[in-house]
Amino acid sequence: YKCRYCGRDDVPLTVDHLVLWEDGGPSIEENLVSACRKCNKKRGNTEYSDWLQHPYYLKVSAALLPCHQEKNEKLAPTLPGIPRVVGKRRSR
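The line above is the sequence of HNH domain-containing protein; the predicted structure tokens follow.
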């Protein structure tokens, strides 16, 4: 496995929710990606579509193959189809 955002596979990975956990994003396969700790922390509570425009993501993803960048961009339109847990959750 590698970080979905920067492509690194030589660091410990975490699980990131595409639809934020705090916004009711479920812990299901369609809503989870592997992310290195640094990218996960940098993304924080940023919406996925905003994250794809974030200066940090643009910098680290520049080293990715174009096909990998394209896969990240194609995820954004699918996010509205992911069911939400009713109500907002508080941060852990």
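Note on the example: The longest strand covers residues 13-17. DSSP finds four helices and two strands in the chain.
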